[in-house]
What we know:
Number of helices of chain B: 3
CATH architecture of chain B: Sandwich
Distance between the termini of chain A: 54 Å
Number of domains of chain A: 1
Strand content of chain B: 25-35%
Oligomer: heterodimer
Amino acid sequence: MDMKYAFFSITALAFASGTVSAQEVPETLDLNNPDLVFVDDSVIPIPLEIFASLDKLGNQKWERYIISRPIDVDTNRSRTAMLFGLVVSEGFIAVQAKDKEAVKRVGRDVLRLSEPLGVSGSVEAHANSIINNASRSDWDAVRAELDSTRQTVINRMEQQRDTELVALVSLGGWLGGTEALAAVIKENYSEEGSDLLNQLDLVRQLNSDFNALPRRARRGEIFTRVGQTLDHLEALMQRDESGAISEGKVIEISLATSNLVEAIYES
Amino acid sequence: MRADLFSLPIALALVLPFPVLVFAQGTDAGSEAGSTDESAEASQAPEPLNDIKLLAQAAALPSLKGEDKFILRESWWSGNIAPGKAKLIQVQLFRRNSYRFWLAAPNREAELNLNVYDSEGKLVPTESESFGGTNIVSITVQPELTGVYYVRLSLKTSLEQSQDWAVIYAYR
């Protein structure tokens, strides 16, 4: 493939190409302009994206953040969807820690949770691949397979018109990753690291998606608590005047996410 | 669509280390991928390959290898865009990471723009890469702050026909 690599600022690119008009690449956008066309669906970052940034601040002791919680599957598919997202995020933490046994457990849990969600046929191969690649310590392959599993489940749910469950899988995944992220930052607080918790727009979107779910999809006390925690996180995930998320807020985020994760597992 | 496009699915299925990646997640309102009226039984079958996504993935392959490789995300976007029009994709990016986005359209005459704006709507500096044509473009961005960004894709007026498109992305 003929690849011509060049470094440009966008301004320089527009200048150099000579074919890009100012209208085609504006220097600024008025994001409130009603004529802007946004692609409907947004993508929730996976924990590994965040952990990759965190690791650049120094080696983290990821093994300390693997929490093996027993899973009690009940008939509430909304809770199961959140558990699915949580378990996949646990898998990402286990990959960071290079903990074979934890990853294998995640592979088995993923398969178990996929049955009541009606997606086990699509997940089985992924689960086996997660377990086999963990046995070989092929962490790149496990990482790719976990993301692939998550995406396959979401695709299948959309096909099966279980769209409300899609939002809950994404929410569970984000919650599990945020619990670990906040715990790591709390353990060794720095203003630089706290920046990763600046996710106000994302948590607003997740909260909005959650509140848009039909009532039947968020039945039960646990989902009242999910809504309350998301409201609370909206207030916490904001930079202060120094541009950082304060240590106090990080502690509070850690506590709020950890309590909610515990409650979902135990409910 | 050019003939060489059709050979890509087979070639990539053999080359890609994670062939399941190609199972589509159509996310744009205009996308056909990912929306189906098939029965629940049929929905367990593998989803069709998306040729345009495969074009983007073929361009991405060199960046996904080596010591300082990017890690491709499973999530992607697709849709249809008219000449002279633009669309925005909202993404959450994290400081200290690098992100690379690839945008592809099937017609080799299509001229595409791909840019990133911050949460205030300001254009963000990026590195760009071309692939011997104008229908596949790639940019790399290193966000200075953690937060929401907007990826803007647009199709220049060099063509009269609207184009299907796909955007994939990776991080490191």
